[in-house]
Amino acid sequence: MTAIHNSQFTIGNSSEKSYNRQDWQKGYESQPNEYSYWVDDIDGEIPADLEGTLFRNGPGLLDIHGTPLRHPFDGDGMVCAMTFQNGRVHFRNRFVRTEGYVAERKAGKILYRGVFGTQKPGGWLGNAFDLKLKNIANTNVIYWEDKLLALWEAAEPYRLDPATLETLGLDFLDGVLEPGDAFSAHPCIDPSCEADGGEPCLVNFSVKTGLSSKITIYEFNPQGKLLRRHAHSVPGFSFMHDFAITPHYCIFFQNPVMFNPLPFLFGFRGAGECVQFQPGRSTRIIVIPRTAPYQEVKTFETQSGFVFHHANAFELGDRICIDSICYESLPQVNPDVSYKEVDFDALAPGQLWRFTLNLEDGKVQRQMLESRCCEFPAVHPDKVGRSYRYLYLGAAHDATGNAPLQAILKIDWQTGERQLHSFAPKGYISEPIFVPRPDAKADDEGWVLTLVYDSSRHRSDVIILDGQDLNKAPLARVHLKHHIPYGLHGSWTSSTFGN
């Protein structure tokens, strides 16, 4: 049974939609301004023992000097830092000064083609055979080895000053990466790596793809030293945004898609618009060992579907369970329809599925765990790659159908209880981040942090929910002075920096 708490707003009869399309669209307006201030408009109280910094990344510009982008994923990365200290909150945002961002600011126009359809001026002739993509550094941001890194999966990280968010330049991870190498925007942090005596390590990957795909896996210690690197080739084109780990394996979903490069080469479409879902093909699940000699790679096949994000994975004897947000198909990027005009009712929602791999007989079992439209899963950081009890997700307000994410859903796998904290009809949530309480005894003892766009005020709020009881009103609602466009991913560190 799902308990529903409506944080602030009231919805009328059950036949009404939980959202208004025009309200939702306003969250995709650019935020060209950069701010730095202590927030003085707070409802509730910041927990005294919540100390640290929430970093968020996402496209801050949805237009270049007034020319709209074709897709938000083409937008320049804007990193936000929300520092919690002594019961107060400091907010700062700053654009990542990538080479492309600086060049376009100087030129006053679009200079680069976007992966998801944004084109330079001049029609197809002005775009044909221009394959140089702008590193937009807009997908994630992590603090590791005393470095703050803005990530975009098709290129190298950009390093930022964690106190000022000033861009320090490309970071090649002390020579691990070569110029032009990619580094995924979805690293995993193993909280207790067996190969390193229980020390945490950062695990990440890159993919070079074409007729075949080369997956390279990296593992770093907390000091940033490369511990392990190994590469594996798999047949076929790959679109892999995320991956999952367990203590002994890295798991990748090779979604059933194909890439036709010709419209991209000849300047008619962006690269992302040339990726087409293949419903007649199986999804391939690739399991790569994390321990040398890394040779026992296993490949499983299951029925067609598309996965962007994984919630978690864990081992059960000779089986591996992967909990993932799965779609019936890849939502196709349509060059003739604005992303703001998406028809939610015409698209199948993302839903939570468990894929159980039998390492002995090679079989895969699929089980739907949550039918409600959901995305952006988050678990306790100590439970990454391990069996876990609690999961937090961004979710739709209504139990059925597809809709924008307006709620935070908590699932207790032990009891089956669901708690839903909804911000509908005027609020639209971002990815939840779970922050454990210091010296917590229970796995859900902590806070859920999220940014909520309040369309009634065209402003964004930082929301703090009690991780043990989402039915409560927010512990604090931190009112920013402006809006933050819908973002992608972020992370938490217990470190604070001078403001």
Automatic annotation (TrEMBL):
Q: Which domain of life is it from?
A: Bacteria
Q: Name one GO biological process term.
A: carotene catabolic process
- Cofactor entry: Fe(2+)
- Tell me the GO molecular function terms: carotenoid dioxygenase activity; metal ion binding
- Residues that bind Fe cation: H186, H241, H309, H489
Q: Which UniProt keywords apply?
A: Iron, Metal-binding, Oxidoreductase
The identity of this protein, by name, is Apocarotenoid-15,15'-oxygenase
Which lineage ranks, top first, belong to the organism behind this chain?
Answer: Bacteria, Bacillati, Cyanobacteriota, Cyanophyceae, Pleurocapsales
